């Protein structure tokens, strides 16, 4: 049972339901191939049926951890931190990101954008989902738009979302892992016909690393 004191700390963002944290190579998007320390925060109600970390959905399964403890762990490793989930914007990200930046770290987020933006970010990777669309405020803030292609209709959805981001946002199409044999070539053909897009692959899975 969570005490009122811990619940208040979670609500304020000075504690977060930490699922896992690990140092690895970024496998997707604009920073593919670079070293990063990942902080995976529990809690998500977006409900992607193909999600490969469904164990992150229930925040109650992941112990509230002091933000400063998370920061102390992160600064032992890479200079870049990626906050992911779950859906990290479920929680107040201001305390975590301010502490990370005070420690001299570059701070990235991977988010569906389904909740209001909190935190201070050097790089926002927005990955919209049909099940719970992004809030309007995040589109002009996104540095990277990563659209997951799970079926043919996702190309149309990707174009709808691309029309909402800023002109300098980098656009990526990424095959959903279980459908990569079906859609990778289709994405190749689409990008060749629509060169504003780039291809993102989950290279960490090919490399068999976290």
UniProtKB/TrEMBL annotation:
Recorded metabolic or biological pathway in which this protein acts: Purine metabolism; 7-cyano-7-deazaguanine biosynthesis
Gene name, Swiss-Prot/TrEMBL: queE
Assigned protein family: Belongs to the radical SAM superfamily. 7-carboxy-7-deazaguanine synthase family.
Name of a matching Pfam family: Radical_SAM
Matches recorded under PANTHER family: 7-CARBOXY-7-DEAZAGUANINE SYNTHASE
Name the UniProt record assigns to this protein: 7-carboxy-7-deazaguanine synthase
UniProt binding sites for S-adenosyl-L-methionine: 50-52, 86, 127-129
Record's subunit section: Homodimer.
HAMAP family (UniProt xref): QueE (MF_00917)
Role summary: Catalyzes the complex heterocyclic radical-mediated conversion of 6-carboxy-5,6,7,8-tetrahydropterin (CPH4) to 7-carboxy-7-deazaguanine (CDG), a step common to the biosynthetic pathways of all 7-deazapurine-containing compounds.
The Radical SAM core domain, residue ranges: 31-210
EC class (word): lyase
Required cofactor names: Mg(2+); [4Fe-4S] cluster; S-adenosyl-L-methionine
């Amino acid at each position: 049972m969570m005490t009122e004191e811990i619940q208040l700390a979670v609500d304020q963002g000075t504690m977060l339901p930490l699922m896992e944290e690990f140092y690895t190579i970024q496998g997707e998007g604009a920073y593919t191939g670079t070293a990063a320390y990942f902080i995976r925060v529990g809690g998500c109600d977006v409900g992607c049926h193909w999600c490969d970390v469904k164990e992150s959905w229930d925040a109650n399964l992941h112990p509230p951890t002091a933000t400063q403890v998370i920061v102390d762990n992160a600064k032992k490793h890479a200079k870049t931190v990626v906050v992911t989930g779950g859906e990290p914007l479920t929680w107040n990200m201001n305390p975590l990101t301010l502490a990370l930046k005070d420690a001299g770290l570059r701070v990235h987020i991977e988010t569906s954008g389904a909740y209001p933006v909190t935190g201070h970010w050097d790089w926002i990777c927005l990955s919209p989902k049909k099940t719970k669309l992004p809030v309007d405020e995040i589109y002009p803030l996104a540095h990277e738009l990563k659209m997951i292609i799970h079926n043919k209709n996702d190309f149309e959805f990707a174009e709808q979302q691309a029309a909402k981001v800023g002109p300098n946002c980098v656009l990526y199409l990424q095959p959903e892992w279980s459908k990569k044999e079906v859609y990778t070539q289709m994405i190749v053909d689409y990008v060749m016909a629509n060169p504003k897009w780039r291809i993102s692959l989950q290279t960490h899975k090919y490399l068999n690393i976290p």
